Amino acid sequence: MFSPLIQSYFDNMLKKLVLFINVLVELIDLKCLVILNLQEYLSKEDVELFYEHCRSREVAVLTLQTRHKYDFKDEQLIIIDKDLCEIFANYDNL
Predict the structure, then answer these.
(1) Strand bridging mode 86-89 / 60-64
(2) pTM of the entire structure?
(3) Quick check: 64 and 34 in contact, CB under 8 A?
(4) Mean pLDDT in the chain?
(5) pLDDT band for position 81 (cuts 50, 70, 90)
(6) Angle at 6 between CA 61 and CA 34, to 5 degrees
(7) 38-66 burial, b if ≥16 CB within 10 A, otherwise e?
(8) Which stretch of DSSP H or E encloses residue 13?
(9) Which H helix or E strand runs over 49?
(10) Measured between alpha carbons, how far is 78 from 13 in angstroms, rounded to an integer?
(11) DSSP 8-state secondary structure symbol assigned to residue 82
């Protein structure tokens, strides 16, 4: 609906994403965020810090990946292959 732009310089992508999340939570009361290929741009430690920040701000995160790069203990992973078959991994509630 709108695209807020934050004019600032950042040392890394994590700081920029954290500030962006904070702004969206304050402006539109963000509850869910969909991100494409997050693991391609951040290290595993930065991804963990990003998830922790989103959890503290009560923002659910859905990441769509073209490939699985890092393993996390609390992640719920669904793989959809080219035939649109769903494969569940690390999904404890099934």
Answers:
(1) unpaired
(2) 0.77
(3) yes
(4) 85
(5) confident
(6) 15
(7) bbeebeeebbeebbebbeebebebebeee
(8) helix 13-28
(9) helix 44-56
(10) 26
(11) T
d(CA 4, CA 71): 32
Q: What is the pLDDT of residue 5?
A: 64
* Angle in degrees, 0-180, between the axes of helices 13-28 and 44-56, rounded to the nearest 10: 20
Residues 6+ away with beta carbon under 8 Å from 76: 90, 91, 92
Q: Can you point out the beta strands (E) in the chain?
A: 32-36, 60-64, 77-80, 86-89
Q: Which two tokens stand for residue 57?
A: 């701000």
Indicate the residue type of 87. Answer: I
Q: What is the H or E stretch that residue 14 is in?
A: helix 13-28
Helix H or strand E segment including 52: helix 44-56
